[in-house]
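Why this split exists: single-chain examples teach little about how molecules sit against one another. For that reason, every record in the complexes split bundles all components of an assembly together and asks for one structure covering all of them. Below is a record exactly as it appears in the raw files.
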Amino acid sequence: MTDRLLTIDGLTKAYPGVVANDKVSFGIDVGEVHALLGENGAGKSTLVKMIYGLVRPDAGSMTLMGDSFSPPEPRAARAAGVAMVFQHFSLFEALTVAENITLGMENPPKHRELSARITKVSHDYGLPLDPERLVGELSAGERQRVEIIRCLLQDPKLLIMDEPTSVLTPQEVEVLFHTLRKLSSEGTAILYISHKLDEIRDICDSATVLRHGVVVDTCNPREKSARELAEMMVGSALHEPLRDAQAFGDVVLELKDLSVASATQFGTSLKSVNLTVRAGEILGIGGVAGNGQDELLAAMSGETPSANETVTFDGDGIGTLGPNPRRELGILAAPEERLGHAAAPDMSLTENALLTAAFREKLVTKGFVNWPDTRTFAKRVIKDFDVRTPGARTAARALSGGNLQKFVIGREVLQNPRVLVVNQPTWGVDASAAAQIRQSLMDLAAAGAAVIVISQDLDELMEVSDNFCALNEGRLTRPHPAKGLTVEEIGLMLGGMEEQEAANA
Amino acid sequence: MLRLEKRPVPSKAWTIATPILAVLATMIAGGILFATLGKDPFEAIRIIFWDPLFSEQFAAYSRPQLLVKAGPLILIAIGLSFGFRAGIWNIGAEGQYIMGAIAGGAVGLAFFPAGGWHIFPLMVIAGAAGGWAWAMIPAILRTRFNTNEILVSLLLVYVAEHILSAMSFGLLRNPEGHGFPGSRNFKDYEAASNTELIANTGMHWGVVAAFIAVIFAYIIMTRHILGYQITLAGQSPRAAKFGGVNPGRLVVLCLGASGVLAGLAGVFEVTGPAGQLTTDFNQGYGFTAIIVAFLGRLHPVGILMAGLLMALTYIGGDLAQLMMGLPKPAIQAFQGMLLFFLLALDVLTNFRIRLKKSEAA
């Protein structure tokens, strides 16, 4: 215990209606990689924000290297040697790497000197990065490197990383882990937040598990199985989704050579996408964020119309149809962005049920809304999908992310779709709810619907998919049977390498 | 330290309470204003809010004025509320109102001096069409060329004013008017006149139309899919698109509805209370209706109340100027306070105030 870096003792933070952290205590040693595990809403972010000086604790104390530590703002935390890489990057696309790093510094050195330091640090830690490149040209993995190097230049004693691998391909994850191990061997402690249990077992020396704001256990993750860790997080036995392989039916939905120019400057254009999905099949589409996922969903849901023959349903061209005619045919979709796209934040759940169910569930006759039936439908979604809410009159924004996601998925599943397209169906959803959502998708396919799951979570895709393809810069790879795909193969598909490989063969 | 905290769900109680509190706060702040001007604040408030309706001396004249003034305000505000809910900002209702009056008035004058029951309905239809056509200009420019409907509709008000002036000096000028500008007086032309339906109440066809519009809008907003789509588009455009709402169609519909209702208000005003087309018959109702729409929080019943309240402060304000010699700017400031307090207190429906101890360092 002589080389204890940070001790957290009884930290408590309450927000109106919820205690985010309740007397949280644990310690991090010098050079230790310490995992912070927990479901969404378990209080991980609040805890980290207190360490980084973004949030003031209501009670409790922290000790950093023997001194009392209560940073009033992030600047103080940085000065004391605490650095943080956020899940969402704060970089300016139109500036170079070096300029972006300069912006975050208190006393930036001269440009040439800084460039030299960036090059040296990036070289030392195996994170190759050219200081003169524009951030807008970098991949998500490279952008993360910018953030990491920005932190490393401060020579931190504790580096906090919030879900660092969510935007990375498996190969990039390997590089990152290599860097983290090197840092740790040099004495930098790392507080690693993730819900990917295999990663944590791979890289972390110890783990603190939070549930409902309380520390459940601190353990060595290598001595626990992924299942044991998950059950610690959830606090109950996990329900593993079951999938019965079965024969597929006819092709239901097909995209033929579909190209869609991006509507916005920073969107991704779809380039000659071909896709077929058969009745009873679950097609998984992987890809790092921002490679055309939103655009692909919009092209199938009808939000972005296209030439009639580029989208066919049961063999008929439907490319020019809008969302509601497609819904009447049985093509339903659940977009990634829950608030503001899949649901209107200030509207009640009943009103949000009407958003997509109006015509397929016959909730509207001659233009007039049948509110009692709509309410009944909303209540059915709430009941069947275990949406935790005071009632159907609650505004969508009052629900937690996971509960709203259950509502959004349930709303589509209960409409008995023939094709269901979902994007990031379990993003930010806790483990038990995620299992439940995946199970409902598999049940839907078992009942004969064609399901397309777009996701950045490869574990999820491998779990549910029959076939797998990857999106890269708006291009879709050929589908491969999901069974037997190796991590390397997936990584190459995500990186868009498949085409070159085929050319070499 | 005071802190605002967002409510998970907007408070129903505050939605109802804020207009009442806003009126009370206006009375207090206005009273202080009048007191500093050396007038008796209680008398001023009484004259503004009470005397127009209940004073023996004035009520006979001013009570009917309430409906006369509130009618067009409510009619136009109802039309505007559709667009405002959908995030389509028609600021040019005044122009549509003027064009409705010109179109309707012109049809009536074309029949002069013939009689017949069909003339007035034809004028009403022409008025609605005139307002609609004027609103279609910003609507089509927006859907075709993505122009800003706020600017286009506002600038078209000034075009409409020039057309009005050209008409009252030229084409529609009363040939027997000894060269004075202005059309024939519709009060002297029975077949085209919008007369008071019940004596001494101020009730005319425009007020009837306003009440019908309130009921119609209420049904559309609460029961019809169109009302749902309008609200959806205003709150969350992306969700609306996902829900299959066609934004262009909504622009045409909302601007069309406000154009029709503003045009109707125009034709009822010019054939009734105003009597003739003159360069200043319009009274600025089209602009005041914007305030009424927001004062009524874009809700049909709210707009009905807001229109009546607004009319009351106008009548009461005139009375206070006359009786107490209060300056006109003081009255206008008083009316402005009402809007200010309403919007300020509106925060409480979505937020609650928390007392927070200042943090120890």
